[in-house]
Amino acid sequence: MDHAQTPGGLGITVGYFRDAEALTQWRNDAEHRAAQERGRAEWYRSYTLHVAKVERSSGFTSVDADGSPA
To answer: How many CB atoms lie within 10 A of CB 27?
Structure first.
């Protein structure tokens, strides 16, 4: 999972799953269901959920002169 949040509190969390079945298992997990209920009761006034398929992904990591990640 990746998460980012603005100083004002707007946040985004991205979860990655190997396939649709893994997503279904996570969605139906009892511990996750309890966390959802707690989040709705204690933390969130609203949220939006998007489920999407990644068609392609790429990245880049800069390195310092000694070869370590910058």
So the answer is: 13
> What is the pTM assigned to this prediction?
0.64
Residue 65: predicted pLDDT: 81
Q: Could you report the per-residue pLDDT of 34-68, keeping only the tens digit for each?
A: 999 999 999 988 989 999 998 999 999 998 888 78
Domains of the chain, residue spans: 1-61
9: left (phi over 0), alpha (psi -120 to 50) or beta: left
Query: Smallest Cα–Cα separation from 39: which of 18, 13, 19?
Result: 13
Say which residues have a Cβ less than 8 Å from residue 13's Cβ, sequence separation at least 6: 1, 2, 3
Q: Return the structure tokens found at 69.
A: 């990640």
Short-list 53, 63, 56, CA closest to 19:
53
